[in-house]
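Standup, Tuesday
Yesterday: got the pipeline producing structure tokens again.
Today: sanity-check two examples.
Blockers: none.

Example 1:
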Amino acid sequence: MFIILKESLKYIPVLGPGMMFYGFIFLARNWTKDKPRIAHRLQKLKSKHDGPLSGSSRLDPMWLMMFPEGTNLSNNGRRSSAKWAEKQGLADFHHELHPRTTGLLYCLQELRGTVDWVYDCTVAYEGIPRGKYGQDFFTLWSSFFEGRPPKSVNMYWRRFAMSDIPLDDADAFSRWLRLRWAEKDDLMETYMQNGRFPADDAAVTREVESTDDKGTGSRGFIETEVRLAHWWEFGQIFVVLLGFALVAHLIGVGVTAVRELVGV
């Protein structure tokens, strides 16, 4: 999986270096600077590679995740989004920021022919009052070190065929994307009113035990629990990085020892 994120996130202690090592794409939100970075990564993602055993040429399976809004939802973000919408003569959203189209359109155009579907995920965190924002309630510190993560993370997934998305007309694509975001805004309103997204009758369903007063799982929803198998599992993402650091350290020690032996 490759994730496109704003550049400031790579400076988060511990997590930032881990994300850089795994090839996440960090953007300065300046298209002149960002386009070469994206183009370099997309060229690798859409290139076929020969299998070492089969000898066949194929594309590597991958997910590319991006956030078209360009930033997280906050008071400042909402004000900026509303101001931009007013300037453009567009209706503002109640729960969403207006998406930026340039980067997403470029990615889809470049990946056309190698990707069949675009998946959209609308996310809602339990426990956030109307008009408030997740960053004010749940942080990395509160979630990982204070034991106060969201009680539940609710997701509504949709998928769109690449062949149905107007990729050859920037204006048509902007209209298509804004319509999708208006639908996402309606989904969030449904969640705020009911504490759930709309049911999907086609979803794989099962009855699951619930510890809250809603009882067992309802048809049209998939409910599951995600947890670490071991408390130290989170650190596994840095194992390879630490391995390289150890090798570099041993090489450095060896070079130092050789220099001392030859009197350099």
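Example 2:
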Amino acid sequence: MVQADYLFLMTDVDCLYTANPRTHPDAEAIEVVTEISSIVADVSSSGSSLGTGGMSTKLVAARLATSAGVITVITRSSKPGNVFDIVNYVQTLKANTSDLSSRPDSPDYEVQNSSPIPPLRIGIVPKPPLHTRFLPDPYPIRDRRFWLLHGLAPHGTVFIDEGAYRALVGKAGLLPVGVVDVEGQFSQQEAVRLVVVRRLSGLANAAPIPSTRYTNGVRKSGDTSDHEGVIESNRSTHSSYESHNPKPYEVGRALVIYSATEIRRIKGLRSAEIHGVLGYADSEYVALRENISLVKKGSKGIESGSESPTGMGTPSSRET
């Protein structure tokens, strides 16, 4: 949101390691991470007296920052001067890369210009302090979309069918005809999860379902615990969608125009029918496209108050 270039996560170790260096002398430092979901690192550190949260929490922060295009660095907090040395190192790398990309590649350059190619002057890259650097996403999300995905705590879940999801990918808004079910209690203009499901063909014969919850986008049955990141079931006693084949999957977040109670009444209806059911029609949409943000393909989920860097992947092509 502040358009920062760097995020420094200061800790009591120099960087990420493949194992705990205190107990494994052969642990190797992980200096550059291009894809957080692919790293294999020791995250057993539970935090020091100077801060809260361990390495897992820092990976969550790194995932959020890199998805917004911010270079993220883990380094030792007892050496604050490392920040300047690391920034200088990264900036020198960028300058050298820029020089290489601007160098003429044509073999006829010397003939055309009647002079030899000038020698390339590459700055000396100083050896940086030990650190782990997370490279930013080449297709970062910015501002409002990032805020929708990561800055708002969802108050419920709106289940949509595959046709509605395809429409969202195509930049259309969410119409009530594409809504399958609603979970939780929320008001107008509050954030909700968007979860894609497959409609059941025979709703009248649907079997009762136990209480359900969603944790980091994963549906769990028979558990009624109540804590952050969990939405208790507040739907009818019969499921209106397939719960196993295929499994529901979270695809994004939205600010809704109607409340949970209103959406339950108009789900599956055409927009022209809203006024006849509710007695009014604030909009033909359940959520405007500008108030919807989808997660990218291969994402490990949406981090919003979660202490785990893992979550659920989605089939979307990129954040939109």
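Quick observation on example 2: Confidence is low (pLDDT under 50) at residues 47-53, 204-238, 304-318. The first strand starts at residue 6 and ends at 11.
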